[in-house]
Design the sequence.
């Protein structure tokens, strides 16, 4: 009677349950949703899509599933698929193709997890193959390897043939149409399996289409499926999403119903049936919000020619208190005339102006404005990068304005039909997982005029959560506390007595016998 070694039993265990292989091999303990994903991927020709919240542990799991699949189907070892009777020489081998649209992302994330897991697992069970020190591959034989592939073409995924294949797509929402065709070709034969892990964006991506496919098992990881919320043991150094992160989202106006909450917490796709950035209901609500005074900020949009307007929007606290518009004119005339007048009228704490395109030549005129010493001048450059969530700075600032409208944090004190039309006429999209607000040029192609008043309001609220409330000028502090505004001795004494408990009235000097 043929006996099996502990090593063979581990491989056979992995063929039945990849998650069990991970736990037995020393890859780490899985929590319930991770076990479900691993069990589903263990099926012959499985197709599994995993839309996930932020910090869900999906990449940690994917790296270990790649190692489990690779080891479970080692050439020449026991295999219930290739050699169920044990008379044909064993398994024919497995290839694991890990992929993403960007090499750096693949190297740092999925392969970062592979490199962290491999040494401990290999020390415990002695896997076949060698981990390349710098390249993205673990190789044993021509028919047995794990490889990392960053590509945006179908050709980059050709030529991989094996009895067992696992195609593992990291951040699968960024897969192009060509790449999706390449994946389809890889899945055509044998025991070919697909695992897609991603943070959902819009419902038009390849990953979204796969979740709607009848042949795909979709297993969602929401924030509420992770250990900090389910009460399961939290793995050491796991860096999983926490209740505090959700509270911070709500504090920042990104609670239930927003794009951020829907995609980052609930792991749901954001429907793009309405691609309007600021809807009419939100604008109408802003007309009824209670206003309050506070930081004063001017937003200046420049229009040197054509039918566009030079526009100045004035914010006081949360309120748009005035919009001044002027016909197209040279930037020097605009800054030396209307903008200078607005600065003198409102004495702003901040002034944000359009320094892109035609505005690039206005820097000198802006710097010559009669702003008080404590005020700050901020140039807007919309094409600059803005992190991982937005295509550029223009998109980030406009999205921040949208959130203020959505959450009743902005007051429109002037009901101007043209302003309403401009604010509610801008569209946005999700491209490569990033929010992108359309440009003025794209709006003109749709037959929509330049949103000069809308842009000025956007500038007036730009970075309003980050800009500090400016300190009072020293002269103002002295006037408030010490009566400098009234130079009389009595005024100074009156204010000094109110300053605090350190002084309780005039007292005689103990030595001289006269009032101090």
Sequence:
């Amino acid at each position: 009677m043929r006996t099996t070694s502990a090593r063979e039993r581990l491989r056979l265990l992995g063929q039945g349950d990849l998650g069990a292989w991970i736990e037995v091999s020393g890859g780490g303990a899985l929590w319930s949703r991770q076990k479900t994903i691993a069990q589903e991927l263990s099926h012959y020709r499985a197709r599994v899509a995993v839309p996930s919240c932020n910090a869900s542990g999906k990449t940690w799991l994917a790296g270990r599933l790649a190692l489990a699949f690779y080891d479970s189907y080692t050439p020449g070892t026991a295999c219930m698929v290739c050699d169920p009777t044990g008379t044909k020489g064993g398994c024919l081998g497995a290839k694991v193709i890990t992929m993403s649209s960007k090499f750096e992302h693949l190297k740092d994330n999925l392969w970062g997890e592979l490199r962290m897991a491999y040494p401990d697992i290999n020390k415990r069970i002695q896997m076949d193959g060698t981990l390349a020190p710098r390249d993205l591959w673990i190789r044993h034989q021509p028919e047995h390897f794990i490889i990392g592939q960053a590509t945006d073409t179908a050709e980059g995924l050709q030529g991989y043939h094996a009895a067992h294949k696992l195609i593992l797509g990291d951040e699968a929402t960024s897969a192009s149409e060509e790449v999706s065709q390449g994946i389809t070709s890889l899945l055509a034969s044998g025991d070919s399996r697909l695992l897609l892990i991603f943070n959902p964006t819009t419902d038009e991506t390849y990953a979204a289409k796969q979740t709607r496919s009848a042949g795909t098992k979709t297993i969602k990881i929401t924030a509420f499926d992770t250990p900090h919320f389910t009460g399961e043991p939290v793995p050491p150094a796991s860096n999983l999403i926490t209740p505090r992160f959700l509270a911070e989202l709500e504090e920042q106006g990104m609670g239930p119903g927003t794009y951020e909450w829907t995609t980052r917490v609930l792991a749901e796709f954001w429907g793009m049936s309405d691609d309007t950035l600021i809807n009419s209901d939100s604008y109408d609500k802003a007309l009824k919000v209670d206003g309050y005074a506070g930081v004063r900020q001017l937003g200046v949009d420049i229009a040197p020619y054509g039918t566009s307007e030079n526009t100045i929007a004035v914010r006081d606290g949360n309120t748009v208190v005035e919009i001044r518009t002027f016909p197209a004119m040279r930037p020097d005339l605009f800054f030396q005339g209307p903008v200078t007048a607005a600065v003198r009228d409102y004495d702003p704490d901040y002034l944000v102006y359009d320094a892109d395109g035609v505005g690039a030549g206005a820097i000198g005129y802006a710097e010559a404005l009669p702003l008080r010493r404590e005020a700050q001048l901020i140039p807007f450059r919309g094409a600059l990068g803005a992190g991982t969530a937005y295509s550029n700075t223009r998109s980030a600032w406009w999205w921040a304005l949208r959130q203020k409208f959505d959450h009743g944090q902005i007051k429109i004190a002037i009901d101007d039909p043209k302003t309403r039309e401009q604010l509610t006429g801008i569209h946005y999209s999700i491209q490569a997982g990033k929010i992108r607000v359309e440009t003025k040029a794209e709006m003109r192609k749709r037959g929509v005029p330049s949103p000069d008043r809308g842009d000025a309001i956007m500038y007036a609220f730009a970075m309003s959560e980050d800009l500090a409330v400016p300190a009072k000028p020293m002269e103002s502090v002295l006037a408030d506390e010490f009566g400098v505004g009234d130079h009389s001795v009595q005024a100074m004494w009156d204010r000094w007595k109110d300053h605090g408990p350190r002084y309780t009235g005039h007292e005689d000097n103990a030595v001289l016998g006269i009032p101090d």
Remarks:
- The first strand starts at residue 47 and ends at 51.
- The radius of gyration is 32 Å.
- Residues 471-489, 499-516 have pLDDT under 50 and may be disordered.
- The CA atoms of residues 283 and 405 lie 7 Å apart.
